[in-house]
Prior knowledge:
The chain is mostly helical. It has helices spanning 6-30, 37-68, 79-101, 105-137, 140-150, 163-175. Helix 2 runs antiparallel to helix 3. The radius of gyration is 17 Å and the shape is elongated.
Amino acid sequence: MKNIxxxxxxxxxxxxxxxxxxxxxxDKLEKGKEPDxxxxxxxxxxxxxxxxxxxxxKEEDILFKAMLNNLNNMHCNPIPxxxxxxxxxxxxxxxxTNALNRNKTSDLxxxxxxxxxxxxxxxxxxxxxxxxxxxxxxTDIDKEKVEKQYKTVKADDFFETDIKTFIExxxxxxxx
Length: 176
C-alpha cells in the first residue's frame, strides 16, 4: 500500500527547521537586537514559495480534494479547519511583510511568533490526525492519482539548488 503523506511530513521537517530559526531570531529581537531584514525577507520568501506555494498547494489542490471525494470513508471532516489555518498563516506573513517595510519590530515579532506557533500546532494536527485519516480513507487507486498529481507540483526557481541547501544557508547565516 502506498504512503501518500510521508513526503508531506518530510516537507514539514523543513518548515519546522525554519520556524525554529525564526523563533530564535525573535528571542534576540526581544533582547534589543536590530532586525536582520535580509534574514526575514528570505524567511518570508521561503514561506511564500515553499511552505505555501509548494507544500500547501499539494495539500489544498491535491490531497484535500481527494479526501473530500472520500468523505464517506472519514469519521469527520477536518479540512475546513486546515484551510482556515492556511489562510491565517498567510495573514501573519502579510503582516510580517508590512512590519518589515514599516520598521515595526514589535509587530514583526508578534506576527512572526504567531505564524510559528500556528504552524507548529497545524503541523502536529496534520501529521497526527489528518494524514493518518487520509491514509486510511483513500483507496489505493486514489493514492496513485494523488501521487501522480504531486509530481506536477514543482518548487519555485527561487531555490537555486534545492530546499535543503537553502535551509542550510539560513542556518549558516544565523550561526555567525
